[in-house]
Amino acid sequence: MAAEPGRESTATTLKVRLPSGRAVVRRFTADATAADVFSWLQSLDELADVNWTLVPPIGSDIEGELLPTDETLCELGFAPHALLNIRDDDA
User: pTM of the prediction?
Assistant: First the structure.
């Protein structure tokens, strides 16, 4: 996974609400992909034993769950920032 970029204007900030209610925040380059976001989330200890789904922000044009595709965060409409949610599929 690429290093987190600085606060330059082209960085995209994602805030992800975990099933516990805790939020995690990370910056990505605008050309980072959904697959990059999944790699980051899969590295989180808190999600290690959770069967989870990444849910797009309310009001997004995306229907259903997000998948680890090669679409960029900009193409997904997540630049310059977005709030995503993790759904615990076993809850």
Answer: 0.92
